[in-house]
Amino acid sequence: MSLSIGIVGLPNVGKSTLFNALTRAQNALAANYPFSTIEANHAVVPLFDDRLTRLGAWVGVEKVIHTSVDFVDVAGLVRGAHKGEGLGNHFLGHIRHVDAIAHVVRCFDDENVSHVHERPHAANDMAVINTELALADLQQLERRLEKLEREVKATRKLQPRLEMARQVEAFIGDGEPLRNFDRRDDPDFAALDFELRFLTNKPVIYVANVGEDSLQSGNAQLDAAREIAAAEGSELIPICASLEGEMAAMGDEERAEYLALYGLDGSGLDRLIRKSYDLLGLISYFTYNDSETRAWTIRRGWTAPQAAGVVHGDMERGFIRAEVIPFHVFERYQDRHAIREAGLLQVEGRDYVVGDGDVILFRFNV
Description:
It is a single chain. Helices cover 43% and strands 19% of the residues. It contains 15 helices and twelve strands. Strands 2-4-1-5-6-7 form a six-stranded mixed beta sheet, with helices on both faces. A hairpin with a 3-residue loop joins strand 8 (282-288) and strand 9 (292-299).
């Protein structure tokens, strides 16, 4: 499995600049006018994990395969996007299948960079996007409700689904995102979400695009955005998209110096992915053989057979056992044979819950 993130926001807030910086490639047109993105930009970005690189050195293989993240950058949304205003309506479908949404908010003033409104206003700009996502969900739900009302006349067992759809409609209509809906674990809600892919049910990370001088000192716009995110229970990451763009072209050493200069513990990509992993409850485990080391993404709490199934379905079906070395143990000994001799190689069965960074060899038979 891989993580997918949709990047949304008003036109000209820095989405495409951020996309190019995150992916370290000029795949998206970044221009100083609205709707410069006329096609959805998509990139598969390796998620570099230093633990995997070190593991490769310890086991003596050069090929290192990192897990990946899919980024989708869509055209800027404007008020009325759900009805087709601007270009946003066409692109909403591109983000219905992502795991999380990165909502880019412009938190800087620059008269040389145009804005769809008179001037940037973080709170108002965030409200426009959130409203459009909610209205798009309502629009889809209304169409589904019409069909359900007809279907329930022939199949009474669909009555609970219809009632759930009406509750969801009322909840969104009250201005609440479905992330806050208290019946999200209900099977009928899950069925509706699987079918309609509600946008407001996806985890959101606000990305506050600030100027370089505000990365450490902050500003009023950033404070306002942070207050709204906190009230929603959402995460917010301050990022200077232009600075990220500069760092994308640097070598590792120079980039590390820049990060230290601004007091950052990682690039925008690193921080965005870490937050997304935490939100979605994702972790990575590692495998290796004579030719490669590789990272695999799973959900926290998955058992060894479930983790094996990410590699291949046959490995889950024919699972026998998992030979596990926690990363900190491998880091200490740096040799599988030494670990085995020390009695620290764990032989685990079907109930073992995989930990982040576990190095695993699966035994299976089909």
